[in-house]
Amino acid sequence: xxxxxxxxxxxxxxxxxxVAAVDAERVxxxxxxxxxxxxxxxxxxxxxxxxxxxxRVLDSKKQGDQVWHQLDxxxxxxxxxxxxxxxxxxxxxxxxxxxxxxxLCGVIxxxxxxxxxxxxxxxxxxRMDFEFDRMSAEFxxxxxxxxxxxVAAARDVRVKxxxxxxxxxxxxxxxxxxNLLPAGIEQVRVVEIVGLDLQADGGTHVANTREVxxxxxxxxxxxxxxxxxxxxxxxx
Length: 236
Description:
Strand order of the largest sheet: 2-3-7-6-5-8
Helix content: 10-25%
Strand content: 35-45%
Distance between the termini: 38 Å
Radius of gyration: 19 Å
Oligomer: single chain
Largest sheet: 6 strands, antiparallel, barrel
CATH architecture of the largest domain: 2-Layer Sandwich
Number of strands: 15
Structural class: alpha+beta
CATH topology of the largest domain: Threonyl-tRNA Synthetase, Chain A, domain 2
Number of domains: 2
CATH superfamily of the largest domain: Threonyl-trna Synthetase, Chain A, domain 2
Order of helices and strands: EHEEEEEEEHEEHEHEEEE
C-alpha cells in the first residue's frame, strides 16, 4: 500500500520513500507526495533520486492500493531508497485551480441549486459542467463576480478524514450528479471551504481562497438540454 502524503499535506515538496515494486520504467513506492491523477486533476510531475541517478516522473496512477510512477528510464529495483521532489510550480498552479473549481461549485450550489455533471482541469485553466437548462453571457458574468467575492473573502480551506458513516451524515456531501465514491471506501476525505463549500474530494488544495488569485469565466456553452459548461482561467 502506498501512503498518500499529499492527502495530509498538499504543501509537502520533498519526501523519502522506498521502492515497493518495479515494472520496467514504472515504480510503486511505499509513500509518495506526487499526486496520482484522478477526479479530473492531472498527475504531478517531479523527480526521484536514487542509486546516484535522477529519474524524471512523467505520470502517476493509482492501481489498487499502490501508486505507480512512470519514469523516463529504468534503473531502480525493489528495496531501493529514494528522495523525491514535486514540480512545485506545476503543483501549486493545480492546487489553485482545483480550489477555484470548488469555489465555483460552491457558489453554483449555494446560489442556484445546481449539481455538477462533469469537470476537468489543467494548470490555471479548467471547465465544469452543471445541470442547468439555460446559459448566457450575463449569467457567466454574474457568476464571475460572485466567485471572485469568495476569493476576496479569504476563506480557510480545511481537510479532514472521516469514517464513511460519519461523512455521509453531512448533507450534500457529494456534489456530482452521480456518486463516484466507491462503495468499499471506509475513510472519506472531506474538503471544506469554510462558510461556502463542504464535499468529498481527493485532490490537492491551497489553504486559503486568497491564494487562488483572480478567476475569469472565459467561456460558456451548452452541452445538452440540461447540461451547461463554464470555462475558467486563473490569474494573479
